[in-house]
Structure formats: structure tokens, C-alpha cells
Target: Oxidoreductase, zinc-binding dehydrogenase family protein
Amino acid sequence: MFKALVVDKDEESGKTSAAVREIGPDDLPHAEVTVAVEYSTVNYKDGLCIGPGGGLVRKYPHVPGIDFAGTVEESSDDRYKPGDKVVLTGWRVGEAHWGGYAQKARVKADWLVPLPEGLDTRAAMAVGTAGLTAMLAVMALEDHGLQPGHGPVLVTGAAGGVGSVATAILARLGHEVAAVTGRPEQEDYLRALGATQIVPREEFAEVTRKPLESELWAGCVDAVAGAMLGRVLKQMKYGTSVAAIGLAGGAAIEGALITPFILRGVNLLGIDSVMQPYDNRVRAWQRIARDLPMDKLESMVQPATLSDLPQLGKDILKGQVKGRVVVDVNA
Model:
């Protein structure tokens, strides 16, 4: 028997409840690889899956946790053998398939990535889906011409998980980073990650019908969308790109016009980490091991245990979690 955070749903009321329980190997889903989980983390999707479900969870009881890192215990797939260190993000694990908030997980071999040299399992979960998404965003901006020295790169939602890692990576690569936050008390934290400029969120709150604004940004990693993205697009320099990774401010791009795209050649790049192909995942994890400053990563980390998760799930949905939460499932 081993511990897991199990979410149940009352069919009459529709309400969910989460608690740490003991389950056995026979309770796990059928798949090729069993992993002894060492660490997981907390993302916005995890908050939904721990709590109301958000339409992500198909069946109850359910074990959430969209990320995990650990050691292969059993494998019927030749690509992995007992003792291999692996990391998993995405593939709807923790949503449609039981996830990493347990001391053991059983998943498809196709969903795993070998842990890159230079990272341990704890560091991998300090990175997690948020960090992988941040690196995929930076790689996409680079693939579309972003280079140091071209001007400041804007990061919206900078104190969140993706924003924190993106800020640290971009600064490490030699970029000026302008960090947008609605939490002024996070200025010291963001500057320690490498931000050279702090931009209050209120500066992007107004929806305008101007076709264009002054050219300010050489690139952008945007976690917010909504009215903020509508304003940012109008402020991008000629031929630059915005990597869109989230919708904390709403799914609509309020106030957006076609003019930045056809008059300045601005690119809007969609970043998805869930179904990302294997080769690009490996490339991104190798870049993380090389380009993410581990001392900065450690400053983002908030430790947690399985029993902390019900409250953390509520907190992240309210925007009250800073940086990266690393969950020691064996503590």
C-alpha cells in the first residue's frame, strides 16, 4: 500500500473533496511503466483537478498531478528499465489519467522523457510543466528571430510559475527582461530572478481602439491574454513575436486589431506543452538543464507534501501561489 491524494465527487451535490488515502498497486491504471514517484508540483490545472474539476476530470475517484519525476520500478517497454530516472509532463495525465500525487504512478512509456543530465528529480519538478512551457516559449521566440540586444522582452504574469522561469531563462541568455505583475510586493523577487524593469499590470488594463502604439518590446512571453495581450500586440517592435502560453486574463484578446500583424509583421505564437512531440520535449529539457540558472530556480521553490495539496489547490486558483511548489510525495 502507498499514499495518494484521492479526489472524490458526491454525485448528488456535485461537490468534490480531496484527502490523502492509502491505495494499492491494483488500483493504478493499466500501462507499460510503473514509476516510484519522488516529486510532483502544483499548476493551475492541478488546482482545478483537486477542486471543482474544471471539466478536466472524467471519472472519480481520481488522483491528480499533471507532473511527476521519479525512478522506474517496472517496465514492459524496452525503452525504460528499473532504476531509470524519468520525468513526465502533459498528455492529460492528472486529468483523464491518474497522475503524480501518489507514491507510485503507472503510465504509457510514450509519455515519459529520460531525466536529462544535470537535473535531479527535485529540480525537474521545480521546473515542471510551467518551466517546460517557459522554455518552449523562449525556443519559439528564438526560432522567430529573438536575440539579445534587440530590446527588452516582456513577461506577463511574471511572478507566476511560467513567468518566473521565463524571466530567469531570458535573463540568463542575456536579454533585458520587463516583468509585468499586479503584485508590487514581488518586485524584489522578480529582480532577483533577473528582471531589469518592473511594469505594473495596470498599465495594460485599459482596452483601446488605437491601431498601434509605440514600439517597445523585442519579444513577449504572455501568460495573461485578455485586454493585456490586446495592448501588448500593439506595442511590439517590427517583426517581433509574442509567445502565448496562458489565459489568466480571459480567453478573448480584448481590443486586438489586425494592424500589428499586417503593418508591423508581428507574430502570435501559440505554445502547448501537453501534446508536444517527444523530440521537442527532449530538446527543451536539455535546454533547461543548460540555460536555467539553478540558484535562481531554488529561490522560486516552495516545498510541500501531499497533505498540503487541498489548500494549495485553492490558493493557486486565487492567484496566491508564487513561483514553483515542489511536492515531496514521500514526506
In short: The chain has two domains: 2-115+299-328, 128-270. Residues 86 and 115 are 5 Å apart (CA to CA).
